[in-house]
């Protein structure tokens, strides 16, 4: 009898422990959880590694700060880092592994839109939230019919806002009335940006003089640029990754094209300067949500700490990763929970989150309502910054 009584006592103790673990209060987390596991699905090798490395650097810096300060209510954050090798098939596989085997309560990445989109089914099936810190395509948070993905969020702007901003900048700040667009074929990022730019530019009274297409990996753009030189236009809109964008800008300037070139956040990297060279990077503009020109003490402190830790100047992918880590920590802190559904609800109701890429509240399509910056380059160095305040974000258009 004593043996059974002891066994019964142990069962009761275990049940009490389990029941107490069902609560959402902060003390429960502190007592029962050793760590918060955040999965990172990033491009750390391959042609897109530059973007993933930046996200990892920012996330790592933020998590180190949080853990060194005692964690979240005494609980440490553990980053589960995976490398999708810039491959969408591997990204999909890793996402499923992070959620079903590795115990991630939330994930971040991939950093590029076409890779990120392949991870959405796993997030939706497992009902575990995932965050795009760097992927801007509209299709990241909504499907082709405009329906919001319940478990997908973004901490940077989307392409409808980015493309519209650059179209309005061309019209209102540069006085442009005719534009040429250049896009990468079969790339959701580039195609979406051209679509939103074209819509806003034409609605504002502008005309698209011509639209050009190139293939991923192209290196010789002489023929395309010679065709553009025959057009009558005021600006070129170039939403491209830095590899091709750098070559196009360099070859355009070498061909005698002097009109403003409007790029996007994918070129916000020092590698652009290495590829194009300083003389080509004049009268060039790009959109971003982070700038070293920002005199806000919070931003300047981040820049100083990042340089001390990594020895380099931070760029937008670093800052976005940093903010995303604190965005997650904020949700855990506010709710006192590691339950994925609780975190999902917390992400959706975030208000006035203050980061180094701006202050934002989460919008109904799971995009942050935040300002966007248009940066002007002189010899490849950012010298001017025009801030465009948050606005009702354009509704993504259903795809045919």
UniProtKB/TrEMBL annotation:
Gene3D superfamilies: 3.40.50.2300. Residues 36-369 form the Leucine-binding protein domain. It comes from the Bacteria. CDD domains: PBP1_ABC_LivK_ligand_binding-like (cd06347). Keywords: Amino-acid transport, Signal, Transport. It holds the Pfam family Peripla_BP_6. PANTHER family: LEUCINE-SPECIFIC-BINDING PROTEIN, PERIPLASMIC BINDING PROTEIN OF ABC TRANSPORTER FOR NATURAL AMINO ACIDS. Belongs to the leucine-binding protein family. This is ABC transporter substrate-binding protein.
